[in-house]
Amino acid sequence: MISGKKLLMIIYYYPPIGGIGSLRTLKIAKYLPSLGWAPIVLTVSKNTLAVIACDEADGDLAGVTVFRTANPDLAFRLKKTMGMSIEQHSSQLTVLENAVFSDSLKARASDIMSQWIGIPDRMIDWYPFGRKQAFKLCERFKPSAVYSSSPPETTHLIAAAVKKRFGTPWLADMRDPWTNKINESRGRVPATLDKKLERLTLGRADGIIAVADGIIDQLGVTAPQGHAVLQPNGFDEDDFNSVAAIESDRLKLNILFAGRFNYPSRDPRPLLEALRRLRDAGRDISMMQFDYAGIDGKLLLELARKQGVESNVNVLGLVPHKESIARQKGASALFYIQWEPGGERYQSGKLLEYLGARRPVLALMPTPGKKSNEFMKSTRVGVIARNTDDVTGILGNWLDEFERTGTLAYNGDVEKISRYSSLNMVSNIADELNRISAP
């Protein structure tokens, strides 16, 4: 028996698909039942290819009902057929020593297909299956509202179809911009077609929420007037309270980066270059260790070798989310890299997740941004570096402190940080759902 106001949630990234794409929607589904809403999740089949997988049981939440549909997933399956890794972005081929000419040709072919077939995204082949099931769920449950989360933008197309057919109030959630993504370059014609599709689709929404001001600014007149609301990501205190800290090596000053680099957009080289500079200046860096938890370990080791500091890099590989949280709690410090160019306009979910670890953060933000500066200053969660010189100075100071005390002090403002909890985030989203569904 479903109790509370019913909400149809159209989500692509849901366990067993893991990664940063699933975290926001998973927390929304988790906390909405306590706020009077009963989530009915519509998502893809369990055999959908995932760059980052997680435990399917993570999606088994109290008060949440999950329905799945078939999903062709042709783009990823074709990529695998061509012998390409679904994990590796084509931009990384230029830095890996084993890259070959055929790899570049395959990457180019993949990019061309993505530009023309993938409008608005490579998941568009899920649309007919998702739309059909969404209609069935609306007829059966008669939800008070529908929620969709992008990327992928295909979820918004399904939600817009629901809105047109049933008149159900629709809230669109944008974790990234639809068009003009900072990590995407498209030809003029496909970009124009996608922009037109964005305007036609989002113009039907009763409300839009976005994780960053930059997304709202880019929407402009596309958003319903006055109904584009900022709602950053958050960190789930339950996640951090439920695990014990894992210390990589308590005798070392270990700095952890958890996630993807998406190199060169997120470039770890300033930290590696800073380690080399400290060593060349006569500092003993043997007690400094750069821990990496993610799928780009091969790339990181290649970059570290070029600086001669590979012995200071510890690649953990892809670890479960709970282990990542535990390692964040146990690290001496955490490393964040702002996306370049354009990342200064957006608030990163990874940076906000780090808040729950209560460890100092070294935030590499080459391009100054007002929002990011205010965030770091108000939360006092760490220090900002713009370039290799800054990183070298910070690491030198941290090394001095660690040699004296065996640890690094944490000075975060607990009250300010608590404002970014997942529960607060979902409470604000529930308010928006109540607004659009009010009689």
Describe the structure concisely.
The protein is α/β, with parallel strands linked by helices.
Structure write-up:
The protein has 439 residues and is α/β, with parallel strands linked by helices. It folds into two domains: 5-233 and 422-437, Glycogen Phosphorylase B (Rossmann fold); 237-418, Glycogen Phosphorylase B (Rossmann fold), CATH 3.40.50. Helix content is 41%, strand content 15%. It contains 16 helices and 13 strands. The chain has helices at residues 20-31, 74-81, 101-116, 127-141, 154-166, 188-202, 213-219, 237-241, 269-280, 297-307, 321-330, 349-354, 370-379, 388-405, 414-418, 422-437, and strands at 5-10, 37-44, 65-69, 145-150, 170-174, 207-210, 228-230, 253-258, 288-293, 313-315, 333-337, 361-364, 382-385. Strand 9 (288-293), helix 10 and strand 10 (313-315) form a beta-alpha-beta unit. Helix 4 packs parallel to helix 5 (154-166) and helix 9 (269-280) packs across helix 14 (388-405). The protein is globular, with a radius of gyration of 22 Å. This is Glycosyltransferase subfamily 4-like N-terminal domain-containing protein.
Unreliable segments of 5+ consecutive residues: 89-102
Secondary-structure element string: EHEEHHHEHEHEHEHEHEHEHEHEHEHHH
β-strand percent reads 5-15%
Helical stretch tally: 16
User: How is the main sheet built?
Assistant: 7 strands, parallel
CATH homolog superfamily of the largest domain: Glycogen Phosphorylase B
Our count of domains comes out at 2
Global Rg: 22 Å
How confident is the prediction overall: mean pLDDT? 89
Number of strands: 13
Sequence of strands across the biggest β-sheet: 3-2-1-4-5-6-7
CATH class assignment of the largest domain? Alpha Beta
- Fill in the CATH topology of the largest domain: Rossmann fold
**In CATH terms, what is the architecture of the largest domain?**
3-Layer(aba) Sandwich
Distance between the termini: 24 Å
- Any idea what the shape is? globular
Decide which structural class fits the backbone: alpha/beta
Helix content: 40-55%
Protein name: Glycosyltransferase subfamily 4-like N-terminal domain-containing protein
Organism: Candidatus Anoxymicrobium japonicum
